[in-house]
Design brief:
Largest sheet of chain A: none
Shape of chain A: elongated
Radius of gyration of chain A: 16 Å
Oligomer: heterodimer
Structural class of chain B: alpha+beta
Distance between the termini of chain A: 12 Å
Largest interface: A-B, 47 and 70 residues
Radius of gyration of chain B: 23 Å
Strand content of chain B: 25-35%
Strand content of chain A: under 5%
Order of helices and strands of chain B: EEEHEEHHEHEEHE
Structural class of chain A: mainly alpha
Mean pLDDT of chain B: 90
Chain lengths: 91, 234
């Protein structure tokens, strides 16, 4: 399941999929709001708006990382290649 | 106003069937060798809802599928009219062309590494009865521990990064962006090497069961877009 480079979020099923989806949203926000070419000084989002998005996401991020910690002991990362930890294809 | 999603080569900027924000039609605005993919809107405000962010991303990905090289625009990039957009494309033609050349044939892969930060043993909080000397020693001890955590993070991040960076044409990384995230990095990888990069990330994940490696992608090359000088208010 991790081999195709175009697997999108939600296709993996179960709790991992939900977690992956949240991490992916986080990665998306990091890219769209903070990276990419800035062509115009006339960006619709002020710095304050962007900060607000991040405040909203901080709640999400902490829930993702808490979930990671809770799973940590019982289900070590990677290893069997079935839990989609490092697929390069996970969206 | 005109909302811009990405820059690509004008030669490959064919019409896109996909719709943009608010289901608006996508239009290519060429200026010499480069072109902006954009849509026209009445409003001057685009809100960063997850739906809008994903739509922006979907448009850029569809351009990426169709074109060899794409430079994604920052979310929220707008211009008053076509003349303002053309003026900017012409003024920055050279860095944009070079930027397209840099990412040509490549995708971006992201890696977020979660770790268990070494638990900081809190120093006994200084009591009012403590001497100034005891207080200073506690402070120094805290500082020493913080440095140890930082050093360990730097070392581990470098080991992981050194295994992946050779597979990439370029890379960026941040160590300890937050206490729980050991490293957040991005790699510019030739499209046909994305799968071997993913395999290398999986191997690293197996070798480091105490870490959690979350690899995402392929993304458009957001981290490898050029920074333009003197971007002024339109």
């Amino acid at each position: 399941m991790t081999s195709a480079p175009t697997v999108r979020e939600g296709e993996t099923g179960g709790a991992d999929a939900a977690l992956q989806k949240e991490v992916t949203l986080l990665e998306l926000v990091d890219r769209l709001l903070d990276k990419g070419v800035v062509l115009s000084g006339d960006i619709t989002l002020s710095v304050a708006d962007v900060d607000l998005v991040y405040v909203g996401l901080r709640v999400l991020l902490s829930s993702v990382e808490t979930a990671q910690r809770m799973r940590g002991g019982a289900h070590p990362a990677g290893g069997d290649g079935t839990n989609n930890d490092a697929g390069g294809s996970i969206r | 106003m005109i909302y811009v999603y990405a820059i690509t080569d004008s030669a490959s900027a064919a019409p896109l069937e996909m719709r943009g924000l608010d289901d608006a039609a996508l239009i290519a605005h060429p200026a010499g060798e480069i072109a902006a993919i954009a849509s026209a809107h009445e409003l001057r405000q685009i809100t960063p809802t997850p739906e809008n962010l994903w739509r922006h991303e979907a448009v850029v990905e569809s351009i990426m599928r169709q074109c060899d090289a794409v430079l994604p625009a920052r979310f929220g990039t707008i211009f008053a009219d076509q003349a303002a957009l053309t003026e900017v494309l012409e003024r920055h033609a050279e860095p944009l062309r070079a930027g397209l050349q840099r990412v040509r044939g490549c995708v971006e892969l992201g890696l977020r590494v979660l770790w268990q930060p070494p638990s900081p043993k809190p120093s006994s909080s200084p009591q009012s009865s403590d001497s100034g000397r005891a207080y200073m020693q506690a402070r120094l001890e805290d500082e020493r521990r913080r440095r140890e955590v930082r050093d360990r993070a730097d070392r581990t991040a470098a080991e992981l990064h050194d295994r992946l960076a050779p597979l990439a044409r370029d890379s960026t990384r941040r160590v300890l962006p937050t206490v729980d995230v050991l490293m957040s990095s991005a790699y510019l990888v030739p499209r046909n090497a994305a799968e071997s990069f993913a395999a290398a990330a999986r191997a690293l994940s197996s070798e480091n069961p105490e870490l959690r490696l979350l690899c995402t992608g392929p993304w458009p090359p957001y981290h490898f877009a050029p920074e333009l000088a003197e971007v002024s208010h339109a």
